[in-house]
Structure to design on (200 residues):
């Protein structure tokens, strides 16, 4: 009822302005039809001056369908705006994620390089005393060839030193693999000797 009063007041104001100013006037209003459904109407008032005075021509047009289409268009535009903002946020998040992944990749690569450098340096540092151990064990082997017990002990030291040196070389190979500089070699393998070493 309040809404109808507002619409009637608008119509009254429109009529008053038209009669006072003589200007054409149009007004959009909403009323309930006979079925209780809300309808939109457009009232147009056109004053026409003649010898007999001012004549007023009025027309009311049902613009409900156009108004509904306008409201749907507004809702669609709002949905597009929200979707655009969501796309912009997603794009920003994607850029941020790519930057974080790139940073993590750089840190991982730096960590790998540091590890490889450490392994290489450590391997070289260990190789130096191992070379001394192998060198002196070879000298002692030549000197104590007649002492079977001592010769066997020195032989074990010498063999295990060679094994340890091979392990050091394998550690260096890991560094070469990570640096992409590993070269595959064909090395003669004697399984019988390996088995004898295991028994020993």
């Amino acid at each position: 009822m309040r809404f109808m009063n507002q619409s009637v007041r608008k119509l009254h104001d429109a009529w008053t302005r038209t009669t006072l100013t003589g200007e054409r006037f149009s007004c959009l209003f909403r009323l309930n039809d006979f079925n209780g459904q809300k309808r939109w109407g457009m009232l147009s008032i056109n004053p026409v001056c003649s010898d007999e005075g001012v004549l007023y021509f009025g027309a009311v047009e049902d613009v409900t369908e156009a108004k509904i289409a306008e409201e749907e268009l507004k809702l669609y535009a709002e949905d597009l705006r929200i979707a655009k903002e969501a796309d912009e946020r997603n794009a920003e998040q994607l850029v941020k994620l790519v930057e974080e992944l790139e940073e993590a990749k750089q840190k991982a690569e730096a960590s790998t390089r540091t590890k490889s450098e450490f392994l290489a340096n450590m391997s070289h540092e260990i190789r130096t005393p191992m070379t001394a151990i192998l060198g002196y064990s070879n000298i002692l082997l030549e000197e104590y060839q007649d002492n079977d017990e001592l010769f066997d002990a020195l032989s074990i030291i010498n063999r295990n030193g060679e094994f340890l040196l091979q392990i050091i070389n394998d550690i260096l190979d890991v560094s070469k693999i990570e640096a992409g500089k590993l070269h595959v070699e064909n090395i003669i393998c004697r399984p019988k000797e390996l088995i004898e070493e295991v028994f020993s």
Q: What stands out?
A: The chain has a mean pLDDT of 79.
